[in-house]
Amino acid sequence: MIPAHVDPLGRADRPLTIVVDGAEVSGVHGQTLATVLLAADRSHWRTAPNGGPRGVFCGIGVCFDCVATVNGVPDIRLCRRPARDGDTIATQTRVTGAVETIDE
Ligand code: FES
Q: Does 58 sit in the ligand 1 pocket, CB within 6 Å?
């Protein structure tokens, strides 16, 4: 992402903070929750039944690989959900609603 102070379009970022498994992660308004996590070097936030890590696969809301619990609601596709200041994310397993912490 191009830093706002050198962006030739002159945008002015409005910062936000989300909480992922208890850890604060910074982003800017206009990002999806998935892009906030990807920009913070988090490539996965769910574990598949075979134990494999899952994050963004399609990026357009089709595959459901990127789901997590957002503000207490399970199975939210992070690639489709705009980030809002104060959002709380809990990573989860394939079992609906099960919450799991993934160490980075
Ligand atoms: S990455 Fe496929 S639905 Fe989000």
A: yes
Q: Shortest CA distance to 25 belongs to which of 100, 84, 94, 66? A: 84
66 close to ligand 1 (CB < 6 Angstrom) = yes
Structure tokens given for 47? 């574990």
Q: Which atom of ligand 1 is nearest to the CA of 61?
A: 3
Answer yes or no: pTM beyond 0.70.
yes
The reply to whether ligand 1 has any atom less than 6 angstroms from the CB of 23 is no
Per-residue pLDDT of 14-69, as tens digits, reads 999 999 999 999 999 999 999 999 999 999 999 888 888 999 999 999 999 999 99
Tokens 């993934």 belong to residue: 102
Domain 12-93 has CATH 3.10.20.440: yes
In the block, residue with structure tokens 């490539």: 43
Write down the pLDDT at residue 92. Answer: 82
Ligand 1: centre distance to CA 10 (Å): 30
Domain positions in the chain: 12-93
